[in-house]
Each structure stands twice: as C-alpha cells, then as structure tokens.
Design goal:
Layout lengths: L1 H20 L2 E5 L10 E5 L6 H9 L5 E5 L8 H7 L3 E3 L11 H13 L3 E4 L17 H13 L5 E9 L8 E6 L6 H7 L3 H19 L15 H36 L6 H28 L1 H25 L1
Parallel strand pairs: 1-7, 2-5, 2-6, 3-4, 3-5
Antiparallel strand pairs: 6-7
Length: about 325
C-alpha cells in the first residue's frame, strides 16, 4: 500500500513539474500498452533524469527504474531514487564491481514475476548524439531469465521513444511514442540451448523497435494553432494584473534554476535535469520566505494568501509572456 501511494504521489508531482517545464507533451500509442502481463519498458536515453520522469508521469505505469549506481551519491537525486524504489546498476566505467548486478537482476526478475513493470534504458548512458547508441544486453537477459525462472508469464517488452524539440530549453516540446510490444517467447525457447545467441537476437529486435519510435534529429510535430490575434490580445489583457503579481513573487526563483544549471551542467543532456531539480528547491523556498514576510506584515491571512497566489500568479505570468512571444 505504501509503495503504491508513493508511486502515485511521485507520478502526480512529476506530471505537474513537466507540464510547466514543457509547452507541449504529445503522447502517441499509449493504447498499445498491454494489460494483465509483466512489462519490461525500454526507452532511448537522451535527457538524463527527465526521460524516466516523462514515462512515469504520463504513461500510467508504476515501474521500478534502473539507474546507474553513482546517482545514489548525488545529494538531491539520491532521495528521489529511494522514494521511487529505483534499482542501482553497477557499471564498469564507473569503477564499480559489476558482480553486484546479479542482485539487480534478481530484483528485476522478482518485480516482473509479481506482474510488475521494470523500466530501463538499454543504451546504458544518457547522451546527446543524433543517433541511437548500441544497446547493452542487460534488458534481453532480464526478459529471458525472468521467463525461464518464473514463466510462462506472458512478459512483453515495450519500446518507448522520446523525442525532444530542444531538450534543455524551458517551454519546448516533447513527443512520447509507444511502439508495438515485443513477445520474447521465440528467443525464450532457444535461451536454454544457446543463451548468447538468443540474447543477441532479442537485443537486435529491441534496437529495431526503438529505431521505429525514437526520432533522432526530428522535431516533434507542431501543436495546433492557438487563439487568433484578437483572442490572444484579450487573454493578455485579462492576465496583465496577475502577470505583474507573478513577476514580483516568482522572478528570482524562476531565474535561479537557469543560473544553477548553467554552472553545474557538463553535458548537453544535463540542463533540463538541473533546472527541474533546482526549481524543486527554489520555488518552495521563495514562496515560504515570501509567506513569512507577508505574515509578519499582515498576519496569518496574508501569509496564506501569498502561498495560494504565488504559484497561480506565476502560471499567469508564464501564459502572458508566451502569448506575447
């Protein structure tokens, strides 16, 4: 019960954060997601922490997420990974003992055998190349070993493609595309006789499935046109006063995440993650300080008013300036 509640809360929180960060989130093929069977979700990995957040927030899945073990050393990411029930992967390039992955695989098999979902990124690392990296074999091994040890379960492998318009840019667009699920039973029948060949063939099938849904170098489809010029002008007029309040209450926490991301990011796939993590801290802290100041000057009612008005007026300011753009 606690695990389900945490998963639901994290999905709701992620949806709210990402709806603000991205101007448009298009979801295609969600009707292809199988029901009543364990799912191994595999996705391309081009935007660090944002990739799993999108899948968890918008596909209605509650997966156990595989993530590189070094993230458990990060002071902000580590608590989120623990809350999400993420599973560490130990990579040789990180100087880790890869024997520990035997325990990781056991946890994945147990989750799938219980009818659950596991999410992993078989490229093995987040990157900014305009092409898919060669897939690691771990996903295929997890699928085949799970069916061999606990099957037949009817396990399905679901490819998910993530395509970003400008992945580090606030208020850009993203496309989430679900592909046709793969049935690993063909390779499963060969796994006991020739494990290596079966793993290789299933990995290749996953690679082809990801190529069909991950659109490298292609911008997500543009959204439909918004209101006409007259309607837009009227909307901006209505938002003018809330916009001014929103600027006053939110300008500093709005600017700080970009400043922080600019100084901490080392790779092109870092900025969006750092912006989201920084915003998770800067906005609540700013609103709390403003509420304390309002409470000191005007009492409890003023403090409560600021807590309610700050986020709503911030959204109004965002809408206003997007309309002008």
């Amino acid at each position: 019960m606690m695990r389900r509640s945490l998963d639901a809360a994290l999905a709701l929180w992620g949806r709210a954060m990402l709806r603000v960060f991205f101007r448009e989130i298009r979801i295609v093929g969600v009707d292809l997601l199988p029901s009543g069977s364990p799912l191994l979700v595999v996705a391309n990995h081009v935007n660090s922490l944002v990739d799993p957040m999108l899948i968890v927030a918008f596909l209605g899945l509650r997966p156990r997420i595989l993530a590189k073990s070094t993230l458990w050393r990060h002071p902000v990411m580590a608590p989120l990974l623990v809350l999400a029930g993420a599973v560490p992967v130990y990579r040789r390039q990180d100087g880790m003992n890869t024997v520990k992955n035997l325990g990781t695989f056991r946890r994945c098999r147990a989750a799938l055998a219980g009818g659950g979902t596991v999410l992993l990124f078989p490229e093995g690392t987040s990157h900014s190349h305009p092409y898919r990296l060669p897939l690691k074999t771990g996903a295929a091994r997890i699928a085949l070993e799970t069916e061999q040890c606990h099957g037949p379960l009817g396990l399905r492998i679901v490819p998910v493609g993530l395509t970003y318009e400008a992945k580090g840019t606030f208020r850009s667009r993203v496309l989430i595309q679900v592909g046709e699920p793969l049935d690993p039973s063909l390779e499963g029948r060969r796994y006991a006789r020739g494990g290596r060949a079966a793993v290789r063939d299933l990995t290749q099938r996953m690679a082809s499935a990801l190529d069909a849904v991950a659109r490298y170098g292609v911008s997500p489809a543009q959204r439909s046109e918004g209101p006409g010029a007259g309607g837009e002008a009227g909307r901006r007029a209505l938002l003018a006063v809330p916009m001014a309040v929103g600027l006053a209450l939110n300008w500093l926490p709005y600017r700080l995440p970009g400043w922080i991301a600019g100084r901490l990011s080392r790779r092109p796939d870092d900025p969006a993650t750092y912006k989201l993590l920084a915003a998770l801290l800067t906005f609540p802290v700013a609103w709390l300080m403003e509420a304390i100041a309002a409470g000191t000057l005007g009492g409890a009612a003023a403090a409560v008013g600021v807590v309610l008005i700050a986020p709503l007026s911030g959204l109004a300011a965002l809408r206003y300036w997007e309309g002008r753009a």
